[in-house]
């Protein structure tokens, strides 16, 4: 029986899932180790660096703070970037808050009808950033033991985002509408509780996606695909083979950046580009947060362009930032900091679950 061409994507997806299932069954120990490592990264890195900002950003949107700020910057933001004031506020906040935050805020605006689907998809490629907490916690302190590396990465990422926003401004300006006048700022216990629960659910989805993607990455490693891609990158870029392999792993999952060679400043421009791109796993996280409502393809294309820009900016600004560190660059020793216990993150998860259960019970009693 011939398979119709229009059915090929479904056939390929089914085959990929079946092959993955076979791999998990036959290589259970390898998969277990990969997932355990991903869970550890979630406990030590993702939750501590993103939870607070995810909750706060949700409060800023739902309470009306972003809309109030937007009214102050509405006209200049539309003239320069083609965004209204509220969209500009999300653009600024997303670069400081962490990868999923911009997507979550845009998703909330789309659900409330304040932005169209096409516009939300375009803005999704701009309202995107790792945030200082992630950059310093995962890369700067662990790989270089220096805040200078974090400054280079952050400046390059922000600069790339601003350049990309200026390039996209003619397209955004067409559909830009003045920022709506809201009902003022309202922050109460109910809003904070709801936003905290929402942040917990979002981060749970992000962590589950990281752990699932770790299994996929281990399969690519085991089958030699990562090695082949790393060797090709090494030939094209001149990077040592092992460094190139780690770059490929970081393209798949940005949280794997902590496995790169420590103290190697030649890798810093690559880390700038990788951080600005975000990695394949982050794209899946964004898809999970938006529940498939918004397309991810525009985000992938725009972040790839941002990654190239960030690489160039990072290479250009490095000499200026490293002038005061040239004496110690050759002898740098990365200070790898890690908590002795995951108890704080575990307790945070338990607290969110308890809060969620408490709210659910309260709702049941009200309905009764």
SSE blueprint and pairings:
Elements lengths: L7 H19 L1 H35 L2 H16 L4 H13 L1 H13 L5 H8 L7 H13 L2 H28 L14 H34 L2 H13 L3 H12 L15 H10 L2 H10 L7 H25 L21 H25 L1
Helix pairs in contact: 2-5, 2-7, 2-9, 3-4, 4-5, 5-6, 5-13, 7-8, 8-12, 8-14, 9-13, 9-15, 10-11, 12-14
Provide an overview of this structure.
It is a single chain. The relative contact order is 0.13. The chain has one domain (32-323, 339-367). It has helices at 8-26, 28-62, 65-80, 85-97, 99-111, 117-124, 132-144, 147-174, 189-222, 225-237, 241-252, 268-277, 280-289, 297-321, 343-367. 74% of the residues lie in helices and 0% in strands. It is mostly helical and 368 residues long. Residues 327-340 have low confidence and may be disordered.
What's the alpha carbon Rg, rounded to whole Å? 22 Å
Quaternary structure state of the chains depicted: single chain
Provide the structure class: mainly alpha
Question: What count of helical segments does DSSP give?
Answer: 15
The stretches of 5 or more residues where confidence is low (pLDDT under 50) are 327-340
- The figure for the number of domains is 1
Strand content: under 5%
**Count of individual beta strands:** 0
Roughly what percent helix? over 70%
Series of H and E elements:
HHHHHHHHHHHHHHH
